[in-house]
Amino acid sequence: MAYPCHIEITREDGNVLGEIRITESEKGLCLERISFISTLHRSVTFGQAKTIQSLIRKRDWAGLYSMDRELNPWYCPSCRKMYSGDEWRTRDIFDDDGWHDSIRGMCPQGHQRMLED
Fold this sequence. Notes:
3-stranded antiparallel β-sheet
């Protein structure tokens, strides 16, 4: 697949949850995940990019979550469902020194998970 690549993450009902962009630079590929909690930037290999694109095309949300939990903050592994940012209850976690540590969330069914580390 050619880069840049822009992929919308949608639920079965057509609700757009976020997006993943993959761009190419002199240093390789850069992935940008845009979601309700933040915009995540990460370097990826061509193989990883191909796998990510394939998982999204197949709507294999569990596979995307298993590959990298931060790539799929919309997914609840307990429910095996995708939820929008409006449906998650989120809270910021801070370490003892006051630094932001992570973002945790609770899905509408009450399951908790780390959304971003």
